[in-house]
């Protein structure tokens, strides 16, 4: 490792540092990594970039991406735009890491619509990442463009990208006090998504949902944090919560599908033999019921520094 300077250096000073480094050929990469770790001032990083450009006649893709990462880390919007312009001229296509940085950096600025343009570029080459979509969704929500935010959200779901609770919370945070039946329908859709997938919001997300309900114009909602009784009844409104247990029919369906698709698969001999599996089923049925099943192999590997037998 190398300690970055605290102020911009002249060419001779950068050369001296490079020569004193034990592996001069990777000095610039190591220095930029240290700058990222130390969150160095942008003018220090820029002075190294300028020195490299003057010495070598150009700047490698890797160094530009590292400089871009520092700009994004510090929210340097104008620098992010400049680097993007340079990269588009120098390189015919960019890889996903650069796009991720550009979209994230521009989404958090007043140039957020450029992030949408970049998202469209990414779509032409690959499936955008969840982070790409969520950066643009948060930007649109922050600027009260809720129709656009939900359009991106549905597009994301259609590509089988699972949203984080962070972006779902953003919908409720930025919709607070806004009117519109369609908006309410979309937000109720998120609540149904949480319910259907048994996803439980954390405390700050719960608070966002509560505040949104209480902010609905013309509504008369009041939210309370409470503890549900073992019976499943809410102590505040006295309603009975839905039972999330599987019915016997659902359980049997799940059991059959796991045996057929997971254990048997297309070829029983790949993992076991029909006789061995039948013996296992007999063993289980003769010893029912079980309260807990422990996977011994996973337990033995849970703490890699200890002896496996000690873990068990």
TrEMBL record:
Q: What terms describe the molecular function in GO for this protein? A: metal ion binding; ribonuclease P activity
Q: Which InterPro entries match?
A: PPR_rpt, PRORP_C, TPR-like_helical_dom_sf
Q: Does the keyword Membrane apply?
A: no
GO biological process: one example: tRNA 5'-leader removal
List the catalysed reactions: Endonucleolytic cleavage of RNA, removing 5'-extranucleotides from tRNA precursor
All copies of the PRORP domain together span 228-306
Principal place where this protein is found? mitochondrion
The identity of this protein, by name, is ribonuclease P
Among PROSITE patterns, the record links this protein to:
PPR
Which family is this sequence assigned to? Belongs to the PPR family. P subfamily.
């Amino acid at each position: 490792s190398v300690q970055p300077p605290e102020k911009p250096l002249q060419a001779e000073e950068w050369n001296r540092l490079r020569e004193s480094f034990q592996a001069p050929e990777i000095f610039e990469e190591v220095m930029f990594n240290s700058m990222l770790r130390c969150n160095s001032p942008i003018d220090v990083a820029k002075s190294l970039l300028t020195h490299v450009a003057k010495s070598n006649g150009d700047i490698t893709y890797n160094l530009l991406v590292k400089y871009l990462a520092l700009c994004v880390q510090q929210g340097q919007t104008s620098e992010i735009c400049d680097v993007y312009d340079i990269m588009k001229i120098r390189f015919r296509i960019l890889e996903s890491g650069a796009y991720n940085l550009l979209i994230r950096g521009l989404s958090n600025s007043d140039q957020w619509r450029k992030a949408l343009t970049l998202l469209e570029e990414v779509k032409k080459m690959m499936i955008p990442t969840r982070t790409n979509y969520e950066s643009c969704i948060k930007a649109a929500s922050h600027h009260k463009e809720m129709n656009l935010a939900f359009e991106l959200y549905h597009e994301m779901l259609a590509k089988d990208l699972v949203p984080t609770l962070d972006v779902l919370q953003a919908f409720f945070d930025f919709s607070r006090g806004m009117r519109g039946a369609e908006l309410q329908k979309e937000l109720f859709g998120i609540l149904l998504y949480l319910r259907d997938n048994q996803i439980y919001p954390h405390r700050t997300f719960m608070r966002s949902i509560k505040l949104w309900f209480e902010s609905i114009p013309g509504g008369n909602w009041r939210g309370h944090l409470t503890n549900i009784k073992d019976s499943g009844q809410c102590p505040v409104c006295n309603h009975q919560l839905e039972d999330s247990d599987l019915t016997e029919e659902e359980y049997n369906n799940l059991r059959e599908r796991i045996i057929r698709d997971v254990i048997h698969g297309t070829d029983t001999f790949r993992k076991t033999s029909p006789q061995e599996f039948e013996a296992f089923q007999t063993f289980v049925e003769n010893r029912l019921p079980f309260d807990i099943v422990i996977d011994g192999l996973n337990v033995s590997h849970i703490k890699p520094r200890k002896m496996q037998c000690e873990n068990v």
